[in-house]
Design brief:
Among the domains are: 59 residues, no CATH class; 64 residues, no CATH class. It is built from 5 helices and no strands. 7% of the residues are buried. The C terminus is likely disordered. It comes from Lepidochelys olivacea (Olive Ridley Sea turtle). InterPro entries: Catalase (IPR018028), Catalase_core (IPR011614), Catalase_haem_BS (IPR002226), Catalase_immune_responsive (IPR010582), Catalase_sf (IPR020835). Its cofactor is NADP(+).
Amino acid sequence: HMPPGIEPSPDKMLQGRLFSYPDTHRHRLGPNYLQIPVNCPYRTRVANYQRDGPMCVFDNQGGAPNYYPNSFTGPEDQPNLKESRMSVACYDVQRFNSENEDNVSQVRVFYTKVLKEDERQRLCENIASHLKDAQHFIQKKAVKNFTDVHPDYGARIQALLDKYNAEAGKQDMIRTYTRSTSRMSAK
């Protein structure tokens, strides 16, 4: 645990230990080693994406989604705790910038050139049948992603979702996930 605003130095031994110690804990104690009372933070609850497994001593984090990014209880950026821009002369390890990655062109080629018309329709039906139980705002995000791939792809899925939602008389209910703030007391 490091206090906010303090970062480790670029010392190679320290950097190796920052990786190996938590990895060793996961190996010896399981993925939930941070929940064990002797290892957990003193005044707060562990909030990561680990579920189940050995040493799960709390409520499995309240059933909240265990993936990032998510629309419910995901971590939020804290601009006051920005990373320092310390210049390091060694270029063995660098941060990979995935900001401008192309995430749609291969899918577009698959949808337009590989799939036949009946296969496209089945794909859209399968996707819509799985999305129909999701909340409306999640459906909209998904349809936007499919529309970015190809306008026809998004339009077909949207039409099927509209049909499913009309049949079900679906209300836009917002599900929320909460984490208990109580700590497990050591007995």
